[in-house]
């Protein structure tokens, strides 16, 4: 077999670790919040900005990325998304906690999209 990518003696399967993300989109500071998870943050946020990322984001015009958390594994990102969405019975508290989380890292509620491009 031919050598590929500097490996002699044949082909070798290499597992590539992909980054994964949890993120929050909004329409304005302290506005409607959307929490998502993705393995390609730039593509997913671009979809939301064009109104094709989700029905919810399109309906509420959520175009501003205000929080992004990187995870080593998609399972970790999914678990974090579930934690951010948990406790529906405590909706008001949950919203305040999300706002505090956003403002701790992004107090001006700037759109972070340009930083990930």
TrEMBL record:
Keywords: Endonuclease, Hydrolase, Nuclease. SMART domains: GIYc. The keyword Transmembrane helix does not apply. Residues 18-96 form the GIY-YIG domain. GO terms for molecular function: endonuclease activity. Signal peptide: none annotated. The keyword Repeat does not apply. PROSITE patterns: GIY_YIG. It comes from the Bacteria. Pfam families: GIY-YIG (PF01541). Belongs to the UPF0213 family. This is Endonuclease containing a URI domain protein. It comes from Sphingobium herbicidovorans (strain ATCC 700291 / DSM 11019 / CCUG 56400 / KCTC 2939 / LMG 18315 / NBRC 16415 / MH) (Sphingomonas herbicidovorans). The lineage of its organism: Bacteria, Pseudomonadati, Pseudomonadota, Alphaproteobacteria, Sphingomonadales.
């Amino acid at each position: 077999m031919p050598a590929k990518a500097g490996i002699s003696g044949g082909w070798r399967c290499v597992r590539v670790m992909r980054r994964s993300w949890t993120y929050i989109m909004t329409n304005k500071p302290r506005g409607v919040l959307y929490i998502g998870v993705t393995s390609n943050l730039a593509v997913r946020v671009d979809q939301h900005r064009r109104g094709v990322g989700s029905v919810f984001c399109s309906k509420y015009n959520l175009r501003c990325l205000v929080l992004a958390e990187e995870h080593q594994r998609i399972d970790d990102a999914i678990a974090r998304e579930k934690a951010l969405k948990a406790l529906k019975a405590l909706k008001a508290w949950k919203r305040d906690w999300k706002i505090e989380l956003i403002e701790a890292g992004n107090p001006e509620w700037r759109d972070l999209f340009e930083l990930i491009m």
